[in-house]
Records
---
Amino acid sequence: MSLRNYVIRRLLFSIPLFLGISIILFALMINAPADYVDVLRLTNPTMSPEEAANIRHNLGLDREPMEQYILWLLGRNSEVGDWGNFFEEFANFVIFIPFRFIQDTGVLDFGVPDSNFEPGFIFGNMGRSFTGSSINSIIGALAWETIKLQLASLLMSLMIGIPLGIFSARKPYSRLDNLGTTLALFGVSMPVFWTGIMFILLFSDYKIFFGIRFPALGSTSYTLTGNEGAIELLVDELAHMILPTIVLGLAGTALVLRLTRSSMLEVLRQDYILTARSKGLPERLVIYKHALRNALLPVVTVVGLSIGFLLAGAALTETVFSWPGLGREAVARINLRDYNFMMGVNMLIAIMVIVSNLVTDITYAFLDPRIRY
Amino acid sequence: MTFAEEPLLELEHLKTQFFTEDGVVKAVDDVSFKLHRGEVLGLVGESGCGKTITSLSILKLVPTPPGKIVGGKVMFNGEDLLELSEERMRQIRGNEISMIFQDPMTSLNPVFTVKNQILENIKLHQDVSEDEALEKGIELMQMVGIPEARRRINDYPHLFSGGMRQRVMIAMALSCNPQMLIADEPTTALDVTIQAQVLDLIKDLQEDLNMAVLYITHNLGVIAEIADNVAVMYAGNIVEYTDVNTIYDKPDHPYTRALLSSIPRMDKKISRLGVIRGTVPNLITPPSGCRFHPRCPYATEKCSTQVPPYVEIEPSHFSFCHYAATL
Amino acid sequence: MANLTKTPIISVKNLVKLFPIREGIIRQSVVGNVHAVDDITFDVFKGETFGLVGESGCGKTTTGRMLLHLLEPTSGSVIINDRDVTRMGKEFVRTNFVYSILMILTGLAFLFLTFLIPARFIPGINGTFLNSLVDEGSVIISGAYIFNDATSELELISFASLTRNWPNLSFIVALLFIWIFTFTITTFIGTGMFLASPLYHLLNKRPPDFPTTKTGVIIAVFGVLSEWVLMFLVIIIGGRPYFPDIPTLIITLLGSAILIIGGVVWQRIDKNEPLDKKMRAFRKYIQLIFQDPYSSLNPRMTVYDIISEGLDLYGLAYNQKEKEQKVLELMDLVGLAPFHIYRYPHEFSGGQRQRIGIARALSVNPQIIVADEPVSALDVSIRAQILNLLDDLQNTLGLTYIVVAHDLSVIRHVSDRVAVMYVGKMMEIADTDELFLRPLHPYTEALMSAVPIPDPKTRKERIILRGDVPTPINPQPGCRFKDRCNYAKDKCNQEPTLDEVFPGHQVACWFSKEIYSSRGEAS
């Protein structure tokens, strides 16, 4: 099968997968004890049962779970609660999608009728959070902060982990190798929230690094006046990234180091390395040309797959560092029982996992010519 | 066959050992032999007898640690390779001494094209441009009998069959016209008809280029086909050295004799195979005296206590046995 | 070996094994076949050693595996001792497939109907209708009266609405888990369950000759119980004051039964190795010796465990003492010392491991042994030991051997008769001495000339074959060897038949006689 067919096949098969994931997630959410209104009643004990029922009704929480799921998946019409014209409006919306698209690009005016239909998940719309704002726009606003941090830490783990791993593999059981593997073990085993707090304490509070206070709260300074130049803003932003990046990158670095080391050791035992040496190639070329590309294959797999889980892993670090990203937002929304938002974030994670899996497979096919799908 | 001139390669009392957690493995113990230009020397032995380690020691490619060449000399063209710097060794590897390996499926790097791997060798040792190197590479591939060489040079190794890959390996090894080729079981992983093709190819190229070939194998049939002289190895020692006709007609060392009687033959019916009792010894604590004595039907008290001498029974027929020429 | 009774113990007729190659985006259709074994026919006689020789990819191993039923033949038949054993597992799997698909569909439909459709989505059933039913006090509809917060009234919401917060989804999720759980246990434990199912025999329209296994019943009971326990756990942990009424109970009970049967059937689908009594009897009859003594023995089992496993499986030892006695006998037979009995495979050398493998094969007193490259992974000096051992065992136990090997010297040494294979086809079959004296097929001739002889005086002009072995994927019609053959003519585009040219000497070549007579003139 060609790579193209493989990708198409995988994408097609991921559609039922998404549906399955969304059903399970929805079922779990809907059955969690207490809902958004219960949380509201905690903060506002004087709320009457009628008021509560009213809010539930407006949010559609009093519907059958099946109904709620269908509304989330397909979209909801203007008259919430009325099934009478749902299918009509839905069909109306679907039929006019291409016309509306052409009309919006300004090429032609078809006179598409106005619709109060709010498209659902299958149209790429995550819907509205219980507090009223569009989930797509919340995610859009916060995603960059999270991605920025995650990419920086990923970069750190690759740039430190791979060279150290190679070094460890070339001189196995040497002192530096032992030091590296011990540190790697430390990095893997320490929980992020603990290292996070320790780092804040040491580098921000006690200023142990040449008396410099590293910023440890938020992604920018509170003291910005708005008159700073682009460079100042950039420096401020980068300074804020240092601690969370290191904390987040520690575990990744350790993982990459251990992986690179073991796979490099394996590759160095292969016959083609002996062939390369018997040609008289300098050790540098043997390692960096012949061994490295083969040794990186498993690293690519693991790193590729972990990209999918980046969002999921962000919550702790972002909370510890008050980082205004998706992870912290998700934690806050869980406490609010904002199920719509949680559905949105969880589906985003699912999409990222599936897409990163696919991308890893494709990368693998390019790195290893033997792979055929 | 006689070779009047000075030997190209001369091993003198080579000793290679592996320092493992369980103890010191005396993998190659006091191995000496000579190899002349245009000669094919067959190094025969069972697995674990040290024949591969001997060849790796010549190129100083023994994995270190745990391996280490602890003594002896490897004289190549009058220089002791063991004394040379790593940089000088790199100029010799792949240029003056080349090597091909047992398993063509794993000895080519799977992620680079054949072109990349052949040209790498040419450009490393010769001062040629990219285009010249490519022409040379294609010429080499044609020489070893790969059809459509110009197109196939851009393929990855996995697209070649086993026999073709071994041809690619040979092309790569011969790319700098080496004076000597070390072939470590180059046909063991191949089918019989393909083995015949590759053996034929090696023999032809060896004659054309007047190369010295150190041919390592466990297959006594292949040795009979290709070698001029034969050295039989057992447990790190060379137990017998002579020319190829003598080894099959008048084997002297008890191990050589037993080995020859234990192989099934295609050309004649043998009612019952001869058997060497016991198993290959562990080389961390090899048997004292003659290393073959626990399995030898003629062993005496002397064999278990004294290391036997190299006895020259006839001119250039050596046997490593106390009772050489008397059994 | 000396007095061969010429009764075929194995008779292979037109045996074919194709491995399909599939391609396509969603529905993967067969675009080609690897013709691993393509229409071969041969007999093996009682007490002889039959050698199967050929290069890699010629189908010799596949043939060996098919004789042992480790692979299912695509077509053709294998008759062992006058019993056709070819379809032993095949029909079983196929009927099961149809049956199990039906069962699974029923199960799904049941699940959907009971739990997924709220009452109000069914035409004609609306609130008024339901209320009227409630008013009339009818209990036909299985549902529950529940207390609604908002209206402070008793209300009937749907077939399966169980508690306040739209719990039918929770129930569905729970049931999904239960379903998965049931599938898992039945797949992993319940091997014999389906054999007990009368439905299978009904479907098969033949009297049940499979024994009803106790495990099957236990699994069924366990499955139902676990489902019910889990269901009530869901209700109790969820803190929901609900007890199902009788109709719901009945539906759920029926559902569980269907689900369990579906689950049990499901695990039959992808197992093409049914362990019924016949199959076991068959395996007792024919055993395999593997090529690689390093990976064919379980490293976590002692020699005793490895050898006694067969004794246990076939009930060949009545007590512990007898079992140990038999194991020691077997070890003695293959030349292992008694003190080896509680050692693990890694403590042995390759030759000794191969001896363990032989003892394991012999433990069930087989009549036929298929040896797949028995010595190719061993050292030269060890080979002779194992070959002599196999020879001795044949003489003392009267075994029939089928030796699969690529090494012609080994084949010549051990075999009484030899079959030469090439790209899935049988090229030549003859008595060993006849074949090596007078090879009639050009391929056999080339193969023999390619083997290096350990005698420098016989260095000869070899027939060097051009090119590589052709691919067995969708091969060209005609003789498989024609592209490499020196004698090939137009007629070779037709497929040659395996004809008996001399008594007991079969060749698949159009020109074997001409080649033979021309060679006679030349020499």
---
Amino acid sequence: MAGGTAISGARAGLIALLSPAYLWLTAAIFLPLSAMLFFSLVTELPFGGAEWAFTLENYRAFFETPTYATLLWKSVRLGLIVTVVCLLVGFPCAYVLAKAIRGRAREALFLLVILPFWSNSLVRIFSWAIVLRGNGVLDLGLNALLPFEVDVSLMFTTHAIVIGLVHSYLPYVILTSYLALQAIDDNLIDAARSMGAGKPTILWRLVLPLSLPGLVAGAVLIFVPVVGAFMEPRILGGRVGTYYGTVIEDQFVAVYNWPLGAALSFILLAVVLFILAVASPMLKRAQA
Amino acid sequence: MARVSVEGIVKRYGTVAALDEVSLDFEDGGLFALLGPSGSGKTTLLRAIAGFVFPDRGRIRIGDQPVERVPVEKRDIGMMFQNYALFPNMSVADNVGFGLRVRKVGAAEERRRVGEALELVQLEGFGGRKPHELSGGQRQRVALARAIVTNPRVLLLDEPLSALDKALRVDMQFELRRIQREIGITTILVTHDQEEALTLSDRIGILRDGRLVQAGPPREVYNAPADLFAATFLGEANILPGGGAGIVVPEGVAPGAVLAVRPEAIAMTRTEPEGAGLSKCVGVLERRVFAGAMATCLVRREDGGEMKVVSRDQDIPAGLTEGDRLWLSWPVDKTLAIPPEG
């Protein structure tokens, strides 16, 4: 009996410790999501005495207007491109930080990696606009260095959007890869070398498989928000910057068609969850 | 298999010399233990032979090939690490076969040699397991199989048994010795455990502060230590006063030499022992520590010095208790004459 009370006492303690976090998650995620789900199923917002009824019309709109699907595909493609670029740029960076640099230099470089988090994202995007626009910092800089005239105007192109998004999300993949790489015992690499393995073999058969969980975690952290991104496409993409995310944003802030915006959001959520579910066998294998 | 020789190698880290003019020969097929306290340079020496560290000066040869600038992956060595360093993402068979696959021996050949290596370490049928499904001793065997499967010219072991508990460690010492003899591979082992060095090796080398203090067969080093450090690091030694009453100085001892005697060479009696060729002194038993088959006694000599005696429990005079007066004696030829420093 005494043991039973001790255990239930410990359980009560655990529940007490867990409850603030779960209450917060309930309040911050579950309630708004429920509200959005409700909005996506009504004809009008039930505020100010408006007439409203339940309907699936908002979801039908997605399937009846091919533009939405086209834009969703465009956003998914953007998400994939940004994720791949972030992985290609971030992983080597994390590798150098984790395995090649030690001591003070590592701390300093690490600070530089997370520096973007310290500035407002809007400020970051507008500073990219200053760099990328014709006659901007990049254009002037290149022309000052190169002996021939170049005309660099990346502003309002897909490239500009990708550059801005990669800059915003790169730290995620560096941090997750760094943690995974840091956990790899240097003796493993030494052992592989002692067996005659060169650098490519060690990277391909040892370092990449062992850091896969970090790479996958970073990829998910990037892919999910980028698919729904609207700020970078809008500011850096201009005319070409119409994506699924910007359409949703328009429904909420410009057209005031919240039910449609909510429905489009849930379709995005479903598609992203579907993609993650399809990718999850790979995720599981990475963890094994 | 090959002979390994190291000649005058120096490795500095900043102003600290991790290795300072170390020269050593490792015979073909022998098992050599490098022994020393932490920071003595023994691991640096092993890593220099492996090729992880390039010496600033000096030569390293494996067989007839000078290798001091050859990187580790081209040296054809086998190495076992302290924590075994098994690849957690690969099965036992893939771990063992890693070096063979790097050498592109072909799938059939790989399977055959992995099977042979696992058989040698008595782990047949474990090929499909993952490292985390193995016990400490099994992991150690896998690491050994992985290190020898490529038939390397030399096998390097970095504190191979330190992660195992005592009983398993003793088993593995015999096992390691058996396998090493069976394949006749030149083996260099780093350890800080003197017992391990004594039981396993044909020859030992004692290092201190990056210098080689003494090298030779274990018995020789134990019975004729080159200096006070070697005498006290390998086993224990009671330092004797420079010829007190009853303590006989052996013949032919250089002037200035320090006399010492091993704790297990000393006999304890209640009365003055008779007989020629004995050194003896009187003391008071201060402490007696029972430790299974052996007992350790601390005895205070009349001149104030302390003597440690290790003796079988039944060899201690009956009823001897702390505070009793007793005689210590040992054969004169068991007296160690340690050359003066420098």
